[in-house]
From TrEMBL:
This is Alpha-glucosidase. The keyword Hydrolase applies. It comes from Streptomyces nodosus. GO terms for biological process: oligosaccharide catabolic process. It holds the Pfam family Alpha-amylase.
Length: 573
């Protein structure tokens, strides 16, 4: 008996899906990196109209919501995470009318739209910052950022020893209007991204207004960039050493995961709860009176999943990315520990667990899992492509079987590898150009995705692509995989359809672990059973009823199943 996924998934998607309260507890949310998704005007850069044209593909894939990385007006020093105007669309992506049309089309297709919000820092081209520089020392506008006099006899040294996440000092000295060297300003990321001072009331007022602007536009939620930032320890104390990046994720830093961020989110939650649902249901019915339909998702890098749970207490945010899970290698023992810790941490606060394997900041998991363990989430080597894809498919089925919500990153449903051999001259990741910072190779997961076997940029657009695409892209394209039995795209389509159909899948807060051979994870959820073999050898397990999906071909005979190496299977009674 072969796996269910050898047959293409039937097109069971409806034009709309019925709204339901707390939809986010079991949602599958698809991240779109707009500049790399689809280009509608042939300028080599993806845009909102391109995303809009591909919404039916996402509906048919079977996702519930689409998260859009930033498309705001920006100088693009950090691919849009340096925002100059939070209420405007950058011309490279389109206009506010394009954003409105995208949101409306998504609603008609039964898809929700989540937009990125970047509250830790702005662009240095933001009107506030430009005026603060022009006004000089003592300007009230400088109080909305972190301006400080330097240390040393002539103020030539940074105010403290903090280091930028992108490498080098976290401070840049400005030239004052009279031409003299002056104050320093804080930027935890690139110099073009000055940090807001969230102790200043004007900053909070501005972002509450920004939230309302996009909620009135009809968005269904916000992914909060650097949600663990914003609040800095009083006095901006020195850390007392170098190599501070090694401490990230292991310690509470004076500039990250400070308790004061939670007061901000409690205020924001009251705003979100004022908005009733989506304005109207996908079926056209009024949603007046339905609360809790719009959500916040935190990008919060914290030392432990228990501290992550602080962000999703009932009066704060709805979800937080599970970076501990993303950073776990394909190993049964390690995976079981992080699964149990995640569910145990989320249960007391009543929040759903989230599961994610790839995003725009890390090496795609089809490449990570083809390399040796211990290399982290940013890897420069291709590894074993066949092994990586096999493990990636299995890891996806495991993730989609766990209780809670799952996040997919564009192109992973095609089994795309990271592009690890981009020439230095085409790279655009700002971290690449600053020494001693992040790896700087995030461009590899941001290469525009392929839609067709041939043509200009494999169907991405008519005018090439802003990052070069490998020659293998054509055979990994949507056109090459759609309807093809056993393809990675059909595996995703099938798995998402089955996940939606199975009453035991989706929301929940626990699993029942079953006895299994070493290196194998097996758990039950109601009548559903998932078995994941993370070893390099086949294992024999009981047949747990009817086989629903398997990531590779399996053999079922006489009440037992031979599960090949690096394979996950789904069963139902």
């Amino acid at each position: 008996m072969s796996q269910y996924s050898t047959d293409p998934a039937p097109n069971t998607a409806l034009a709309t899906v019925a709204p339901h309260r707390d939809w986010w507890r079991d949602a599958v949310i698809y991240q779109v990196y707009p500049r790399s998704f689809a280009d509608s005007n042939g300028d080599g850069m993806g845009d909102l109209e391109g995303v809009r044209s591909r919404l039916p593909y996402l509906r048919d894939l079977g996702v519930d919501a689409v998260w859009l990385s930033p498309f705001y007006a920006s100088p693009q020093a950090d691919a849009g995470y340096d925002v100059a105007d939070y209420r405007a669309v950058d011309p490279m992506f389109g206009t506010l009318l394009d954003a409105d049309a995208l949101i409306r089309d998504a609603r008609e297709l039964g898809l929700r739209i989540i937009v990125d919000l970047v509250p830790n820092h702005s662009s240095d081209q933001h009107e506030w910052f430009k005026r603060a520089l022009a006004d000089g020392p003592g300007s009230p506008l400088r109080e909305r950022y972190h301006f400080r006099p330097g240390k040393g006899e002539h103020g030539e040294l940074p105010p403290n020893d903090w280091e930028s996440i992108f490498g080098g000092p976290a401070w840049t000295r400005v030239t004052e209007p009279d031409g003299t060297p002056g104050e320093w300003y804080l930027h935890l990321f690139a110099p073009e991204q000055p940090d807001f001072n969230w102790d200043h009331p004007a900053v909070g007022d501005e972002f509450r207004s920004i939230l309302r602007f996009w909620l009135d536009m009809g968005v269904d939620g916000f992914r909060i960039d650097v949600a663990h930032g914003m609040v800095k320890a009083e006095g901006l104390p020195d850390l007392g050493g170098h190599d501070q990046l090694k401490l990230l994720g292991n310690d509470v830093m004076p500039f990250f995961d400070q308790d004061g961020v939670h007061d901000i989110y409690r205020q924001w939650r009251t705003i979100l709860d004022e908005y009733a649902g989506r304005g109207e249901g996908p079926d056209g019915s009024s949603s007046e009176g339905r609360r809790g339909e719009r959500i916040f998702v935190a990008e919060a890098w914290t030392p432990t999943v228990e501290r992550t749970a602080n962000y999703v207490r009932p009066d704060e945010l709805h979800q937080a990315f599970n970076f501990q899970y993303l950073g776990t290698y394909w190993d049964a023992a390690e995976l079981r520990v992080v699964i149990d810790r995640t569910l145990d941490a989320m249960r007391p606060v009543g929040a759903p667990a989230t599961w994610v394997l790839s995003n725009h900041d890390v090496t795609r998991h089809a490449t990570r899992f083809g390399n040796e363990p211990g290399l982290g989430t940013q890897i420069r080597t291709p590894g074993d492509r066949e092994l990586g894809l096999r493990r990636a498919r299995a890891a996806t089925l495991l993730m989609l079987a766990l209780p809670g919500s799952a996040y997919l990153y564009q192109g992973e449903e095609l089994g795309l590898p990271d592009v690890v051999d981009l020439p230095d001259e085409v790279r655009q990741d700002p971290a690449y150009f600053r020494g001693e910072g992040q790896d700087g190779f995030r461009d590899g997961c941001r290469v525009p995705i392929p839609w067709t076997r041939g043509g200009s940029s494999y169907g991405f657009g008519s005018g090439g692509s802003w990052l070069p695409q490998p020659e293998v892209w054509g055979e990994l394209s949507v056109e090459a995989q759609l309807g093809v039995p056993g393809s990675t795209l059909e595996l995703y389509r099938t798995a998402l359809a089955v996940r939606r159909e199975q009453p035991s899948l989706g929301a929940g807060d626990r699993v029942e672990w079953l006895d299994a051979p070493e290196g194998v994870l097996a758990f039950r959820r109601g009548e559903f059973v998932c078995v994941a073999n993370t070893t390099g050898e086949p294992v024999t397990v009981p047949s747990y009823g009817r086989l629903l999906v398997a990531s590779t071909e399996v053999t079922v005979a006489d009440g037992a199943t031979s599960v090949p190496a690096d394979t996950t299977t789904w069963w139902t009674a």
